[in-house]
Amino acid sequence: MKETFEQHIQQALSEFTQHRETLARVRGEMASLSATVRSKDRAVEVTVGAQGEVTALRFLGNKHQTMSGQKLAASVLDALMQARQEVLSRATALFGSVSGIGSGIVGADPEEFDLDRLLDAAGATARQDADQAAPAARRFGGSHG
């Protein structure tokens, strides 16, 4: 049995609602992403936020006091780059979890989306459903209109 136009619309609305909820959840998770990493020499700990911004910088123990400025800077940069990479990896995984959303409607190129064709197809389905229902309505004394 073919689905009616109304069933197609209900299914599309249901999928849209699910996708919207999923995207809202992912957006929230993206906004709250952070990573805390220690430098390889364990002298520095850096925390970065979702945009890679430094939100915390700690010097662990007193090791930094005996380091040259160049080594300390290298430790900070090392931890910073690792933390940013961690946030990027998590963001990539989150984006990957929603990468297929909407692909049933819009292909790889949004310019290819043809609303007129979609509406014509929906109208043809509705007309076809009505045409199939008409003989049954006449058999049972109903009217078609």
From TrEMBL:
Compositional bias per record (Low complexity), positions renumbered to this chain: 126-139
UniProt region (Disordered), positions on chain: 126-145
An example molecular function term from Gene Ontology annotations: DNA binding
InterPro entries cross-referenced by the UniProt entry: YbaB-like_sf, YbaB/EbfC
Residue ranges that the Swiss-Prot or TrEMBL entry lists as coiled coil: none
Gene3D superfamilies tied to this protein: Nucleoid-associated protein YbaB-like domain
Highest taxon listed in the record's lineage: Bacteria
Name by which UniProt lists this protein: YbaB/EbfC family nucleoid-associated protein
Species the sequence originates in: Streptomyces rubrogriseus
Lineage, highest ranks first: Bacteria, Bacillati, Actinomycetota, Actinomycetes, Kitasatosporales
